């Protein structure tokens, strides 16, 4: 079972691990996983997550992901538990302080340092162009 401890698995996932183990013991080499076991894995991926399910059941992550997408009509596993989704606008809570320091030194040794706070990017570009051109 790799790096996942048995006690961390849900009962349902633990039961699926046992079913896959039993199937692997009795299968002929080269036999494909039965559709019933794949269906179980897809259902578990929706509730337990793709990575956890793939690792626990010893499945290829990408193969399981494709089956989940096919089953869910192209929607990823765990993309949302609700039947419908709605748009929610999120307003940032943290304010970002914009600060910029421009320094210029001429060949004759003259120096200029400008520190801007709460600036508009277009203004900084204009200021930079003027300083560069010596205006």
Summarize the SSE layout with pairings.
Elements: H1 11-26, H2 35-48, H3 50-57, H4 61-71, E1 99-105, E2 111-117, H5 121-132
Antiparallel strand pairs: 1-2
Helix pairs in contact: 1-2, 2-3, 2-4
Notes on the protein architecture:
This protein is mainly α. It folds into 2 domains: 6-71; 99-132, no CATH class. The protein is 45% helix and 10% strand. The protein has helices at residues 11-26, 35-48, 50-57, 61-71, 121-132; strands at residues 99-105, 111-117. The chain has a two-stranded antiparallel ribbon with strand order 1-2. Strand 1 and strand 2 (111-117) form a beta hairpin. Helix 1 packs antiparallel against helix 2 and helix 2 packs across helix 4. The radius of gyration is 29 Å and the shape is rod-shaped. The termini are far apart. 13% of the residues are buried.
Mean pLDDT, as a whole number?
77
What is the domain tally? 2
Instruction: Count all strands and give the number.
Output: 2
Helix content: 40-55%
The Rg value, from CA coordinates, equals 29 Å
Strand residue percentage: 5-15%
- Walk across the major sheet and give the strand order: 1-2
One letter per element, helices H and strands E, the order comes to HHHHEEH
Overall geometry: rod-shaped
Largest sheet, if any?
2 strands, antiparallel
Q: What's the N-to-C terminus distance?
A: 70 Å
Our count of helices gives: 5
Structure class:
mainly alpha
Low-confidence stretches are none
């Amino acid at each position: 079972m790799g790096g996942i401890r048995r006690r961390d698995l849900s009962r349902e996932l633990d039961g699926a691990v046992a079913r896959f183990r039993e199937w692997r013991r009795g299968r002929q080499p080269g036999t494909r996983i039965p559709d019933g076991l794949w269906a179980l894995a897809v259902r578990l991926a929706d509730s337990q997550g793709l990575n956890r399910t793939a690792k626990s059941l010893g499945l290829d992550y990408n193969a399981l992901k494709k089956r989940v997408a096919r089953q869910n009509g192209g929607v990823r596993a765990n993309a949302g538990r609700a039947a419908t989704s709605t748009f929610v606008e999120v307003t940032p809570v943290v304010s970002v302080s914009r600060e910029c320091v421009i320094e210029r030194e001429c060949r004759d040794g003259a120096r200029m340092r400008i520190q801007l706070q709460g600036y508009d990017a277009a203004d900084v570009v204009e200021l930079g162009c003027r300083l560069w051109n010596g205006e």
